[in-house]
Design the sequence.
């Protein structure tokens, strides 16, 4: 019977070519979606992980505390109560925040009052001299709020989850700032006996340690942004220069921008002048220069970097942005501009000569306005290249850490925090560093997806 | 306005050690206000000559004078020329106004208002005022042509150079622009050098035609001189449409002023300067299709291979001998001759041209006197 | 020489001067110095002294160099061939016209625009012992029953459907896309119907492969290098796909129309029209690919301590490592010598390629 129906459906399916076409399209889209999931998915899961307080726990878990509206609500109100700053949070002197926790256990006798502490931790790694939070913030006494005689909860140990039935109690307490220093972060630890499980709290705990006996909060007054993008705030705030105390990440970003912008400008100037000369002028050695240029594109940078490093060492520009900016052999860009200029009709140039324009005027008033597509693509790809460049900055920018560009900075982040397993912060830094290039990509897609290719294939 | 003198002007390109002469010691005088056309087949050097006048091409040897002053070392803009290119070479990113104003801007001598006036004047003359704010891409071929002329004229050049300016236009427009160019020339009275490969353009426009071939001048003269007394076989063939017929003619006997020839076995006696001729010598006999007439009998006999009917006239292609080219005859359109018909062609001995084996014309005592030429011819 | 041409030469020299200066200083001079240093014992601080071929002989005996050499060459061969094939295939698939083409193109291109530093860090996280890859594999393994049912169901329905067709006496193609789609759909239905039953229970499984911090080999390359291969392909395929895409769109449509009229299958059309027509693009892709992969540095450097030096070292990294060894004395001579060997390999490959490219053109 069923087979009859299936066969009937199959008949209909086999009858028309359109069916086959539709099926082919379905496969095409299926394939494309799978592929897009792979290419973008890698970044999506990494992005979700970068929000987590610990990026290495349950890496495939996509529903995380930072993406729960209930946590947002808690972070928002805690930040508001602590420092009137719902976005970035903090605890101002004299302020008080209210926190609630609910614990469950098998029976009421086993359900004891938890111990709340402010750990003796510095408020910031980079500022060892800052006053201790624990000395200025007091934990108020716990007040039993509710009791629930019938709850279902999961007891987790390792990767094993046991569903249990039991009772729960909710306590409320306050954290009161008695000192005078405003704090960005206030850490907290709550200890309970074994078997007692935290099932709800104003803000989810950052970590559950020692088989569930210790729940710790990295910051109980986060504010919404600081909570959701905690690692992003940390990567900017925590890593600071040893000498000036400035945020390293901000220095790297500034350096990257500075270098990329100047490098692009320098490349454009060299490429336009050189491309014009090689495209339209005959002078002694022009062919030699052209072939040297082609040759230079095939020689690995590893051959050249030692001499170039010494050049900058000798003129004392190591560890300055200028060492990165000026070491430009813009061969590829000269070639692109040369080829584009060659496509401009010779008669137009001759008309301009007859009209009384000199070569520089011709370049600026005739050739450059006609070369907008090539200029745009050299600019955009040049910016991307300079922003992403790794090898040469790594060679010439060695210390202090403030002189790094973002990619070199990321390497140092990776070396410092990777050992501690703090991957949330490394991932956050990686994603932050890609934002400018991503924005440029979004706005100027066609220069990546079209121009780049057509000019390269023709070349 | 100015006169232009070429004195032994030579152009050589050297590539990979080998030098190639493209213009070979040319002497030429172009008078003030003259409309001169350089004409010749492609590769004859006519464009190179023009570009040397413009200063776009360096001169290897010889002197180029404007009004007696040497200009070899002057840059194009210092020579006071205006030039129209074959592709018009308008600046695509500038409006028509900016295109025309560009030479003024480069010279930098005029105020904004003066520039505007100058542009408006030129636009007015060329009837392109309504196009001033358009970009070249929005214009038709004829309009672009006029913009290019405007850009060349706005600086009031001493010499106005045009490099095949009409070759990108369709036939109807070409005829109209031809008339207009002639009109502009009358209005401006400036010296014009015009390059073309089209002999019709040369004949209709020029005061003076310079026929070039292989880097040297074949002949200089008024259109009529070129047509009626071509100095060489090349000029004779090149000027005139349809092309002149060339037949082999054998010298049978000579008297001081008359040569007896045999053309396709037909005897022909022609009054000519017979010095330098020897009996038995083979000459080229040039016969223009329009100088031939169909006759009842005698003359050259031939069979009509093809007939092209063109209304007022017909072209007949006659096969006169198996191994020779067909003979072209131009006859009135009403002539009743069918294909494959056998006809006879009369040769008018006063209307034929003789060339020796070097291609040089053999002077004919009769011709110049019979056909008075409006001779303001170039005197060397 | 007259005024115009010497003027032009003068201007040409002025215009090219900035480029010429950088080319002379940062390329010609640097190349010459690398050549000179390769025959000296220079260490950035002493007076260089001529040592003859000692550096070259020394590195040939250095085990790390030999490892780097093989890692680099194999990496280049593997990555270039894989990325070229994948990019070609992808370009052909998305070369047609369909709705949302632009979106997919952009989506596939994203990995190419990001910095190697950012992407490498993401991938190191991905490859951590308790990172995403192991987590994902654990999930797969723990749901293995469902997966088996899915695959078995698919094969069952596929054979069944073909059989039904055949019994009804109809011509049937095993790879009819509609048929495959229906089998897949029915097998999903089957799996969904069985969910909750014991056939699909998830079983506890923990996959914990050490992807980076290992000296183990898989085939010809260390496992770490394979991890870099995967990551490198991920970032380079999109760029090359775009190159191929431009080529695919440049193939005249009438070639395919003529082939369809001649009765050529799609596969034959691909082999006999698409591939030969794309030969010039392939040449560019392979050349760029070889140059790029032979110089593999960024990913290796960013791996850092996550992997032992021997299982990630490439020639480019060897050069850097010799010039700036962490806490050791710089060996500029050795660095220069090995860099020159890297350059020689690159140039040789590009030259060979060019020879082959020329022959291909002559044949076509």
Sequence:
């Amino acid at each position: 019977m069923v087979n009859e129906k299936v066969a009937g459906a199959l008949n209909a399916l086999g009858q028309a070519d359109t069916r086959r076409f539709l099926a082919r399209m379905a496969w095409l889209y299926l394939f494309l979606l799978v592929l897009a999931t792979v290419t973008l998915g890698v970044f999506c899961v990494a992005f979700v992980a970068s929000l987590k307080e610990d990026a290495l726990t349950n890496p495939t878990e996509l529903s995380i505390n930072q993406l729960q509206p209930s946590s947002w609500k808690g972070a928002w109100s805690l930040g508001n109560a602590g420092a009137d700053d719902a976005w970035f949070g903090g605890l101002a002197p004299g302020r008080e925040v209210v926190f609630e926790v609910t614990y469950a256990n098998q029976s009421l006798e086993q359900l004891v009052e938890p111990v709340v502490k402010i750990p003796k931790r510095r408020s910031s790694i980079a500022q060892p001299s800052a006053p201790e939070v624990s000395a200025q913030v007091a934990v108020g006494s716990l007040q039993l709020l509710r009791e629930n005689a019938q709850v279902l909860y999961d007891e987790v140990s390792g990767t094993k989850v046991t569903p249990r039935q039991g009772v729960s109690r909710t306590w409320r307490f306050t954290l009161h700032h008695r000192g005078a220093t405003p704090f960005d972060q206030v850490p907290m630890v709550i200890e309970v006996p074994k078997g007692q499980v935290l099932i709800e709290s104003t803000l989810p705990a950052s970590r559950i340690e020692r088989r569930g006996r210790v729940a710790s909060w990295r910051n109980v007054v986060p504010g919404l942004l600081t909570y959701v993008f905690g690692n992003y705030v940390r990567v900017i705030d925590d890593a600071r220069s040893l000498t000036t105390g400035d945020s390293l990440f901000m220095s790297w970003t500034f350096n990257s921008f500075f270098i990329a912008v100047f490098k692009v400008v320098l490349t454009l100037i060299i490429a336009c002048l050189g491309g014009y000369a090689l495209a339209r002028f005959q002078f002694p050695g022009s062919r030699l220069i052209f072939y040297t240029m082609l040759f230079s594109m095939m020689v690995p940078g590893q051959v050249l970097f030692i001499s170039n490093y010494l050049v900058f060492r000798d003129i004392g520009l190591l560890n300055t942005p200028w060492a990165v900016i000026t070491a430009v052999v813009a061969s590829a860009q000269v070639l692109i501009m040369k080829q584009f200029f060659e496509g401009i009709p010779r008669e137009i140039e001759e008309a301009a000569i007859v009209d009384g324009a000199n070569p520089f005027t011709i370049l600026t008033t005739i050739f450059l306005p006609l070369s907008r597509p090539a200029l745009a693509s050299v600019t955009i790809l040049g910016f991307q290249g300079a922003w992403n460049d790794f090898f040469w900055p790594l060679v010439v920018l060695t210390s202090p850490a403030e002189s790094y560009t973002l990619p070199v900075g990321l390497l140092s982040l990776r070396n410092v925090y990777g050992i501690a397993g703090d991957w949330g912060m490394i991932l956050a830094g990686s994603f932050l560093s890609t934002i400018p290039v991503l924005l440029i990509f979004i706005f100027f897609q066609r220069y990546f997806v079209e121009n780049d290719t057509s000019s390269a294939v023709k070349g | 306005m100015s006169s232009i003198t070429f004195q032994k002007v030579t152009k050589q390109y050297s590539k990979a050690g080998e030098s190639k002469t493209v213009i070979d010691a040319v002497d030429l005088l172009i008078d003030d206000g003259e409309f001169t056309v350089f004409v010749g087949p492609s590769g004859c050097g006519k464009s190179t000559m023009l570009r040397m006048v413009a200063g776009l091409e360096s001169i290897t040897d010889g002197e180029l004078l404007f009004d007696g002053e040497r200009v070899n070392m002057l840059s194009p803009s210092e020579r006071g020329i205006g030039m129209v290119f074959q592709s018009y070479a308008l600046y695509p990113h500038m409006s028509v106004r900016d295109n025309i104003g560009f030479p003024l801007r480069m010279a930098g001598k005029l105020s904004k208002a003066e520039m505007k006036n100058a542009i408006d004047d030129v636009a007015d003359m060329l009837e392109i005022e309504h196009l001033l704010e358009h970009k070249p891409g929005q214009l038709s071929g004829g309009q672009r042509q006029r913009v290019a002329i405007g850009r060349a004229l706005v600086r009031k050049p001493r010499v106005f150079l045009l490099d095949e300016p009409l070759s990108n236009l369709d036939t109807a427009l070409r005829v109209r622009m031809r008339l207009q160019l002639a009109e502009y020339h009358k209005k401006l009275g400036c010296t014009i050098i015009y390059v073309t490969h089209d002999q019709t353009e040369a004949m209709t426009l020029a005061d003076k035609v310079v026929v070039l071939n292989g880097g040297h001048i074949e002949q200089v003269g008024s259109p009529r001189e070129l047509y009626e007394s071509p100095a060489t076989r090349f000029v004779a063939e090149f000027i005139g449409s349809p092309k002149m017929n060339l037949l082999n003619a054998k010298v049978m006997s000579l008297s001081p002023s008359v040569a007896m020839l045999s053309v396709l076995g037909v005897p022909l006696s022609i009054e000519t300067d017979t010095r330098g001729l020897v009996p038995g010598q083979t000459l080229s006999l040039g016969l223009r299709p329009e100088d031939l007439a169909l006759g009842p009998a005698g003359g050259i006999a031939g069979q009509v291979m093809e007939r092209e009917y063109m209304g007022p006239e017909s072209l007949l292609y006659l096969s006169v001998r198996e191994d020779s080219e067909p003979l072209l005859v131009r006859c009135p359109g009403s002539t009743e001759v069918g294909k494959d018909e056998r006809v006879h062609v009369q040769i008018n001995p006063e209307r034929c041209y003789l060339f020796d084996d070097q291609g040089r014309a053999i002077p004919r005592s009769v011709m110049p006197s019979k056909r008075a030429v409006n001779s303001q011819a170039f005197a060397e | 020489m007259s005024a115009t041409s010497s003027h032009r030469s003068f201007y040409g020299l002025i215009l090219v001067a900035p480029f010429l200066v950088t080319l002379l200083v940062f390329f010609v001079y640097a190349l010459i110095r690398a050549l000179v240093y390769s025959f000296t014992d220079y260490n950035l601080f002493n007076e260089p002294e001529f040592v003859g071929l000692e550096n070259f002989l020394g590195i040939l005996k250095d085990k790390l160099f030999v490892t780097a050499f093989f890692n680099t060459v194999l990496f280049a061969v593997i990555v270039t061939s894989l990325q070229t094939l994948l990019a070609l295939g992808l370009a052909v698939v998305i070369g047609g016209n369909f709705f949302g083409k632009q979106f997919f193109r952009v989506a596939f291109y994203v990995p190419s625009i990001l910095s190697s530093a950012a992407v490498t860090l993401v991938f190191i996280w991905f490859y951590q012992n308790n990172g995403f890859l192991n987590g994902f594999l654990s999930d797969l393994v723990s749901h293995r029953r469902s997966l088996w049912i899915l695959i078995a169901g698919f094969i069952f329905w596929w054979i069944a459907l073909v059989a039904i067709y055949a019994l009804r006496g109809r011509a049937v193609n095993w790879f009819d896309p509609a048929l495959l789609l229906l089998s897949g759909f029915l097998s999903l239905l089957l799996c969904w119907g069985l969910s909750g039953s014991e056939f699909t229970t998830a079983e506890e499984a923990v996959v914990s492969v050490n992807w980076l911090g290992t000296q183990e080999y898989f085939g010809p390359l260390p496992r770490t290098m394979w991890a870099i291969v995967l990551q490198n392909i991920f970032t380079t395929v999109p760029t090359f796909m775009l190159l191929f895409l431009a080529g695919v769109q440049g193939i005249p449509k009438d070639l395919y129309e003529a082939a369809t009229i001649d009765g050529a299958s799609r596969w034959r059309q691909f082999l006999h029209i698409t591939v030969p027509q794309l030969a010039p693009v392939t040449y560019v892709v392979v050349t760029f690919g070889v140059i790029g992969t032979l110089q593999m540095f960024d990913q290796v450097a960013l791996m850092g301590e996550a992997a032992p030096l021997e299982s990630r070292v490439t020639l480019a990294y060897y050069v850097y490592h010799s010039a700036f060894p962490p806490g050791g004395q710089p060996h500029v001579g050795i660095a220069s010598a090995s860099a020159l060997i890297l350059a020689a390999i690159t140039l040789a490959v590009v030259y060979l390629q060019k020879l082959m490219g020329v022959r291909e053109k002559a044949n076509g």
